Amino acid sequence: MTMASTPQPATEPLPDEAAAFFEDAAGNEDPPAPIKGVGRLLGWIIPANLGIFLIWGAVPGILLPAQVTQLFGEADKVANLAIVMTIGAFCSMLAQPIAGQLSDRTRSRFGRRAPWIVLGSLAGGLALVGLAFADSLVGVVIAWSLVQITYNFAQGPLSAVMPDRVPLKRRGTFAALSGIGLMVGALGGQIVGSVFLGSIAAGYVTFAVFSLVILTLFVVFNPDHSSTELEPEPFKLGDFLRTFWVNPIKHPDFFWAFTGRLLLYTGYFAVTGYQFFLLTDYFGIENPGEVIPMLGLISLAGILVATVASGQLSDKVGRRKPFVFASSVVTGLALVLPWAWPDLTAWMIMTFIAGLGFGMFQAVDTALMSEVLPSAKSFAKDLGVVNIAATLPQTLAPGIAGAIVLSLGYAALFPVGIALSLLGAFAVWPIKAVK
Question: Class assignment of domain 43-222+248-427?
Fold first, then answer.
């Protein structure tokens, strides 16, 4: 994709109608004065998401399980990984809304989001370097928790770019491109991460540098309006604590959209997020590093096909819910294959079919979520809560899976994933604001 020439920083204040919009509007309205260069923004959202989601794909799914196995041995790997992931997931859950609160209230000539995107990626890179040299369970827990916190401080504000700056009629396309970056990152992270199984520390450093460079370039090439003229929002502790509770009465559409995403992501990643140990202990693959790249490419093929087609088709027909429903059903049913047929071939077929379903979901659900946000003045905070539904399952899944495996065995992962995915499908139908 051809990029435009480097723009100058947008330092002018928001026009009056835009300032009013940030006071009153909700996420199902167009920004009154979108930043010029939406086309360029569409092009850059893929690498921006890659910068973060390569890490989420490589570290918790590949490098961290391998590191835990090397440090603590085969006997204790499941329990220790569950401890690391559970604590890290809790930190992630707290970090997203806090990052959103700070981002929404940031007043700078570079806008509300840019400072946190850059600072979060810088601090996250340093945390990854710390993780590379951790040699005890406490050290791994602290370093991974810092990775979760810092990169969520970049991811939360990045997710607010769409409702901040993208018109409604282009959000399906933007969501599809964002989904491509997310899933290519998550799956590409597995592929690239497997390359670094022989040198885990080098992998951590590589991902840290790549993320910092890409996210910095995203901010430079897509400057935001200055936020210095926006009236500062007072911070109220009670309001912040209530962000962890999605009120089904006050904001029912937001509640159901959040619930649907949380259920599907948890079901999907409870199985696929445990892929490394499934390959070694369930399918009997002696060298998973040789298989993971192929699996990543298979899944990526399904995701790209579904994502590209679904986002544009959703915009064209003006409907979101049927796509989200169908995607959750397809993803859930795909998990039946390796459960009924515990073989690597079944896992490969499941990987492609689930990729189709998950790609369709990722392409459309992001647009749906942007249209049920409660208030424009708190986009980043609300999206921080939304991102809990996406990030938390990816990071918590190995911990949940570990508890299931320790108590019931590997086969029990599949019915859990199927049930959660199907429940996620039905959760979107009560939404009224979106067709």
Answer: mainly alpha
